Amino acid sequence: MLRLEIDGKWEPEDFIEVLKGVESLYYKVALRRHFPFDYPHYWFERPDFALSFEQHLDFSNDWLLSRARTIARPYTRLTVSRIEYASPGGVDLAGLGEACKAVEGIVDRLIKFFTERELRRERDKQARIETTKKEVELEQEEESLRGLKIENARAILKLRREYPEMPDEILTALIVHDQDKLVPRIAERKITAVTTIDGKSPEDDEAG
Predict the structure, then answer these.
(1) Which of 14, 94, 141, 194 could staple 107 via S-S, CB 3.0–4.6 A?
(2) Is residue 136 situated within a structural domain?
């Protein structure tokens, strides 16, 4: 079971985006068996009308998620066990342990990124820093976040090969796009922690 600890004021869009992002990441790990009679992924290319790359990613992830919801067997499905909306509160999601653990690792690393960023900014308030240096540091943070999202995507690629006919760079982009639904809520401290109830914490895994 995956538990997200939440805080602050949530709007309906926050719940929609977070649950959809988590569900989309989860099924990319949970549905590991390749079905030989699947249609090839021509859906990523939409020749009938022009889309931006971001719109392509939205369309493709929606297609994959709809497919996953259709074909997933009962024991592989991700379900909501509990939502406690308080300050703080929590969201419990039940699913396959390995897939929940993979999502936990992604969310945990994103939380740590923004927590460390806030600590750096608090330290910066105590010192005078030139404007140019701040701009450079902001660019470095944005590049570090992009790198972290790609690293998270590659971690999922190592766990599963559901789409062998899909180039890794496309699947990486889709997984990065899933994370973009979570990042604003983590940055705003609306998602404050993540755990798998029946597993070790990410710190324990790193220590081992």
Answers:
(1) 194
(2) yes
**Does residue 208 belong to any structural domain of this protein?**
no
Give this prediction's pTM: 0.78
Question: What is the Cα–Cα distance from 65 to 13, expressed in whole angstroms?
Answer: 18
Q: How many whole angstroms separate alpha carbon 55 and alpha carbon 193? A: 30
Torsion angle (degrees, nearest 10) of CA 142, 143, 145, 149: 140
Beta bridge partners of 79: 94
* Digit-coded pLDDT (tens) for 158-177: 776 555 556 778 888 999 99
Taking a C-beta distance cutoff of 8 angstroms, is the pair 19, 65 a contact?
no
Residue 208, number of CB atoms within 10 A of its CB: 6
Q: Are strands 2-6 and 89-94 parallel, antiparallel or unpaired?
A: antiparallel
89, two tokens? 């509160």
Domain that holds residue 162: 2-203
Count of structural domains within the chain = 1
**Pair of tokens at residue 71:** 């074909």
How far apart (Å, rounded) are the C-alpha atoms in residues 49 and 69? 27
Token representation of residue 160 = 């599963």
Q: What is the mean pLDDT of each run of 10 residues along the chain (208 residues)?
A: 95 96 94 52 52 84 92 94 91 95 95 82 56 55 87 82 64 92 94 83 43
Strand partners, 2: 93, 196
Do 5 and 192 meet the contact criterion of CB atoms below 8 Å apart? Answer: yes
| Neighbouring residues of 105: CB distance < 8 A, sequence distance ≥ 6 | 152, 155, 202, 205
